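Journal club prep, notes for RB
We'll compare a predicted complex against what the paper describes. Inputs for the uracil case:
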Amino acid sequence: MRLEKYLADCGIGTRSQCKTYIRQGLIKVDGAVIKNGAIKVRGTEKISFQDKSISLQKNLYFMFHKPAGCICATKDEDGKTVLDYFPSSLAGKLLIAGRLDKDTEGLLFLTDNGAFIHQLMSPKKHVEKTYYFEAAGRLLEDAVQRVAEGIDIGDELPTKPGKLQNIQTIGQEAFSGLLTIKEGRYHQVKRMIKTLGGKVFYLKRISIGGINLDEALSPGEYRPLTEEELQMLGTGSVK
Ligand code: URA
């Protein structure tokens, strides 16, 4: 694999940070400074960063089915956090990839690899996240079109084009649907649906970057991400 990707997989930084380290001459392969990140390495070489030997670590990657009622933080004085669902030996190592509101359920990734989180959650990466929602009210007729074009939800910029689909009515005064977005602004789904005529009363994230929440996981359960899922998320896996 390319040297710059190998370095990122070792966890020393994002791909672009690694390119900078290479340009700065901080990386040696078998004792020689290498300034070309495109060279191929097999992992059998002696590779160092600032003269400290580095190697592929075994990282931890989990898919978690977040239940409603817990928060995405490491500590909460009063209530439960997502880390309370993991044994303390793991919880101490894990970082939460992105945030879901306390009352939102669904797919969350946890890992000890900060570069993975950056890759997945940075707005620049445009990773698709799909939410199932139920909302009170009546959806504007042109809602699908508006979401596709991007809508003003009171921020400096309109939302990036998204996808609204599978709209179903629930009785006279409520509706459900799937909303796919490529950003992760504060309360984004709730604010978008509000702009389109509804008040969300149930929200569940069902996929990130093409990885669906495993239906075998009940709320509060987790499992390791598979090699295939990691490849899909573009980690080039380092399990
Ligand atoms: N959008 C929201 O409004 N809340 C979430 O938890 C996630 C996305």
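Talking point for the session: Helices lie at 3-9, 15-23, 88-91, 114-121, 143-149, 188-195, 227-232.
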